[in-house]
Specification:
By secondary structure, the chain is an alpha/beta fold. It has a single domain (about 5-185, about 210-235), classed as 3-Layer(aba) Sandwich (Rossmann fold). It is about 45% helix and about 15% strand. The chain contains 8 helices and 7 strands, in the order E-H-E-H-E-H-E-H-E-H-E-H-H-H-E. The chain has helices spanning about 15-25, 40-50, 65-75, 100-130, 150-170, 190-195, 195-200, 210-220, and strands at about 5-10, 30-35, 50-55, 80-85, 130-140, 175-180, 230-235. The protein has a 7-stranded parallel β-sheet, with helices on both faces. Strand 5 (about 130-140), helix 5 and strand 6 form a beta-alpha-beta unit. The longest helix has 29 residues, at about 100-130. The protein starts with a strand and ends in a 7-residue tail after the last strand.
């Protein structure tokens, strides 16, 4: 039976690196984005590296799509051993200009999606008495900055969800972890919009997605007598 690592929000950076990392360990990487065609480069790369990956178009905010996704994977691919929820929704805006519609949409992406996917994973994992659920957090998970009221509120809520799930599910054999990624990540967005920050890459001043992924694999590999719930990752020169 195939062991499945499901990555919700497998973008070109962190999510893709996590999928590739688990595929290298022999897992079938099931990856999602709202647009299936955007997953093709990642699927091709995993295949070229000798791994197995399957792409799914799914909106993490819509309950019926999430339920259908889990049912499809569990019935046709294999048991989901690892769920990684990796949707960002980092959209800055002044509180004076923020709209209710955008505030709610950011919460839907960063928090409601985490609940829906986490719940469906937990329902299946508890019947097997094992599994790992990892939520990707951010600096905003710990403190709210100016112009980030919506994002911070959603990420704070996601962190609370992870804590609540860990306390309920840990005694049932499910490892729930929350990773605070505190710093700029090596992405096209940072390269194009923050060239001064991106220049720090040569000094290890921004996060390498592959190194983030290594830590996700480490969390999944931990023995249950020494589980980490919250892990923070930042470049050595990042202020905190």
């Amino acid at each position: 039976m195939n062991k499945v690592a499901l990555v919700i929000g497998a973008g070109d950076s962190t999510g893709g690196a996590i999928a590739r990392r688990f595929a290298r360990e022999g897992y079938t990487a099931c990856v999602t984005r709202r647009s299936l065609d955007k997953l093709q480069p990642l699927l091709d790369q995993v295949k070229a590296d000798g791994g197995t990956a399957l792409g799914f178009a799914s909106d993490a905010r819509k309950e019926e799509e999430v339920v259908a996704l889990f049912e499809q994977i569990e019935s046709t691919v294999g048991p989901i051993e690892v769920l990684v929820f990796n949707i960002g929704a980092n959209v800055p805006c002044s509180i004076l200009e923020e709209t209710a519609r955008k505030y709610f949409k950011i919460w839907e992406m960063a928090c409601l999606g985490g609940f829906l996917n986490g719940r469906e994973a937990a329902r299946r994992m508890v019947t097997r008495g094992r599994g790992t659920i990892i939520f990707t957090g951010a600096t905003a998970s710990l403190r709210g900055a100016a112009h980030f009221a919506a994002f911070s509120g959603a990420k704070h809520a996601l962190r609370a969800l992870a804590q609540s799930m860990a306390r309920e599910l840990g005694p049932r054999g499910i490892h729930v972890a929350h990773v605070v990624v505190d710093g700029a990540i090596d992405t096209e967005f940072i390269r194009s919009n923050f060239p001064e920050r991106y220049a720090l890459k040569e000094r290890d001043g921004i996060l390498n997605p592959d190194h983030i992924a290594d830590n996700y694999w480490m969390l999944h590999s931990q023995p249950r007598d020494a589980w980490t719930h919250e892990l923070d990752l930042r470049p050595y020169m990042e202020k905190f």
